[in-house]
Amino acid sequence: MADWMELEKEYFMRTVERAPLTIVKGQGSYVWDESGKRYLDFVAGWAVNSLGHCHPAVVEAVRHQAGELIQTSNHYYTIPQLQLAELLVKNSSLDKIFLCNSGAEATEGAVKLARRYGKLHLNGAYEVITATGSFHGRTLAMVSASGQLKYQTPYTPLPSGFINVEYNNIEAIKKATTSTVCAVMLEPVQGEGGVNVPSPDYLKEVRRWCDEKGIILILDEIQTGIGRTGELFAHQSFGIEPDIMSLAKGLGGGLPIGAIMAKDKFSVFTYGEHGSTFGGNPVTCAAAFATMKFIIENDIPRNAFDMGIRLIQRLERLSSKHTGLITDIRGKGLLMAVQFSGDFAKTLAQKCLEAGLLVNDVKPNALRLMPALNITADEIDEAVELLDQAITSLDANR
To answer: What parts of the sequence cross the membrane (predicted)?
Structure first.
């Protein structure tokens, strides 16, 4: 048997600190390693596997499309991308779409679109207000947009044009809005920042401010979209609509795809101003269409909402059992964080792995839970039982 971890050390750039696990198979909410051990997956490809691993509808769509047509470029029409575009537009408040390959591309494109609108209609305004704790992608511009110094410091000087202000503070946005600002870009719930949920009126206040100033509201729904928070799009639970929205992660059911969506007024790209060689690839679009169709027809967001409530209830019981250890349980739907009284999340994540549960140590003192959206009640209960085992093991060794 090959030593896959040693091969990774030899050939890969040191960009990801991987968990000591080589996954060889996935089905539903479970994965298996090369020795045959099974794990309950509460990472789901970083909120990508919206229907779990190898969902039959996605597998069949990929298998069929790969045998028909794999790539053409956007110089031609292809059916899967047009089917996907129609489905997304008809089930959202947006009017036009551009398909790309990732979340970083989608947010980068959303900012380009906002800047283009600023040049055409806002006297050349180009700056975008973003929030501290945000994460918008790994391109150089999106690192600058993201309000986290740990991602920014290695790459200074950063591209200009972004103003980071305090999250969940409407007055900070108002103070930062000048004649050179064309847009505000926010995550409805911050994912990489630690699953931070804003106050109920925050996004409504931002929406009103953008309307008052005639600037664009971009919502980065890369992690929160496609049913993750209990609605098809997270902004629906806050009672607002964006002008521009970016999507990715759960959209492809496991395959890499992203999308920029915009209302007609803000859809100002024209020929040659934006593009992507692989964007709208027939295979990924077929997977995304199958994923979206299944999610909509089977009301998967409702399951995410219900299972999210169950998860919170089970975690609250766990908190009562381990008094003083869990200091906060937060999130929406099936994007949850469990915060602890000390910076031992990494060690606890390893204990979870040993117990057969995959979780993400999103912060030194917090675990992030983001399972498949079609997860069952029994699987929720199993996950909390395994987390309980891991906490007990951690306590015994502290």
So the answer is: none
